[in-house]
Write a structure and sequence with these properties.
It is built from one helix and twelve strands.
Length: 196
């Protein structure tokens, strides 16, 4: 009985060693397939452009809009005071292509008041500049807006609405918010944008 038991144990041990050796042999094999990638450059189909109130006189200064050389970046600045301030059509997003694009705005770095003066701050997306809020973005928190359709040849007017609480101290330095414009030719495509 001891001999039979020993043979079974040796058989099991030999089987385990064979499996381990086979596993170790395959673990050191790497297969490499070639892959060629071609990248073509195209002009941007969706661009920034100055709105009707760009570079106009605002409260205590000019409402400045600076558009990048290729119209793929923009910087805006404006002044606000106590209560609700609505800045209409300061910047626009235009679709220069012959097909629809799907657009969203992402807040990468939210607006924060050190004094608590800002009660609310919103960016309003208005397709066609027809005074209809097609989407709103809370500028005081990170996140991405609802995706909206930008039809071929149309614009999205960007309106800002900022409310300062009366009786609070104003911030001594300008407040900033970092945003990203996301667009895709496919519905739902903006959700695949990598984080900043």
């Amino acid at each position: 009985m001891n001999v039979a038991r020993t043979r079974r144990l040796l058989f099991v041990a030999a089987s385990l060693i064979a499996v381990l050796v086979a596993t170790m042999a395959y673990a050191s094999i790497v297969v490499i397939y070639p892959l060629n990638v071609s990248v073509s450059e195209v002009a941007p189909p969706v661009k920034f452009q100055a709105g009707s109130n760009a570079n106009q006189t605002g409260l205590g200064g000019t409402m400045t809009v600076i558009i990048g050389k290729n119209q793929t970046s923009a910087t805006v600045s404006f002044q606000v005071t106590y209560q609700t301030n609505y800045i209409h059509d300061l910047l626009e997003v235009v679709n220069t292509a012959g097909n629809d694009y799907y657009v969203a705005i992402r807040v990468d770095s939210p607006l924060a008041s050190s004094t608590g003066a800002v009660a609310s701050a919103q960016l309003i997306l208005d397709v066609g500049n027809d005074a209809t809020a097609d989407a709103t973005v809370d500028l005081t928190t990170t996140g991405t807006s609802t995706e909206i359709t930008l039809p071929a040849g149309q614009v999205i007017a960007l309106h800002f609405q900022v409310t300062l609480t009366e009786g609070t101290k104003l911030d001594s330095a300008p407040l900033t918010v970092q945003l990203s414009l996301l667009y895709s030719p496919q519905s739902g495509g903006t959700s695949y944008a990598p984080s900043p």
